[in-house]
Write a structure and sequence with these properties.
Helix content: 10-25%
Strand order of the largest sheet: 3-4-5-9-8-7-6
CATH class: Alpha Beta
Low-confidence stretches: none
Order of helices and strands: HEEEEEHEEEEHE
Distance between the termini: 92 Å
CATH topology: Protein Transport Mog1p, Chain A
Oligomer: single chain
Shape: elongated
Structural class: alpha+beta
Number of strands: 10
Number of helices: 3
Largest sheet: 7 strands, antiparallel
Mean pLDDT: 86
Number of domains: 1
Radius of gyration: 25 Å
């Protein structure tokens, strides 16, 4: 094969290869975590640490029936709905059952539900964090109790319908915040045996 034929073949290959179209895969915007520091929330019965870029909004306070509050994350358009209930040995089992039922009420849409046990013997606290996979309304839920007189439960929700793949990084950030709340929670009135 001559030099001219080889050159013609190379030029044809270049033009033919430039006309091919390869579709790009679907992608999502990169979401970075907002670092803001940590502050402490003080209530008459408990306290915990939470991120400074979140806000706590009191919803309802009734010392005999409980305390309802929200931890809002404006940067992520998300809310952690929290409920504190005073309990005793007769009402604790009902609170635990309600928490379980609320987490598993999403089982039809969930791809899976993983429970992780949490125990802090120094602070007399135990609980469960539920990681709910798939396109569900609340991807993370948790509860904490001293198994004697206190019960705190929370559910993470976003303010719009979202694709679970696109918000996976945000769910990861907020799950870390929930774990930090669980690890820093201190009861002020626990009747648990010391």
């Amino acid at each position: 094969m001559g030099k001219q034929a080889m050159l013609f073949l190379i030029i044809c290959c270049i033009f033919i290869s430039c006309n091919e179209y390869t579709p790009k895969p679907v992608g999502y915007l990169r979401i970075d975590r907002e670092e803001s520091g940590v502050v402490r929330f003080e209530h008459a019965v408990f306290s915990f640490r939470y991120p400074a870029n979140a806000r706590i909004e009191e919803v309802k306070k009734n010392d005999e029936c409980g305390f309802w509050f929200n931890i809002t994350y404006p940067a992520y358009d998300a809310i952690l709905y929290c409920t504190y209930l005073p309990v005793d040995k007769n009402t604790l089992s009902g609170a635990l059952e309600d928490s379980y039922q609320l987490a598993y009420s999403q089982a039809l849409k969930a791809n899976g539900i993983q429970q992780s046990l949490f125990t802090d013997s120094l602070r007399h606290t135990s609980g469960i964090i539920y990681d709910i996979k798939g396109s569900v309304a609340s991807p993370v839920q948790f509860y904490l109790t001293d198994n004697a007189s206190n019960f705190l439960r929370g559910s993470l929700y976003f303010n719009q319908q979202v694709n679970s793949d696109s918000i996976a990084p945000v769910v990861g950030f907020l799950r870390e915040d929930i774990v930090a709340i669980m690890e820093s929670l201190e009861w002020k009135n626990t009747k648990a045996a010391r």
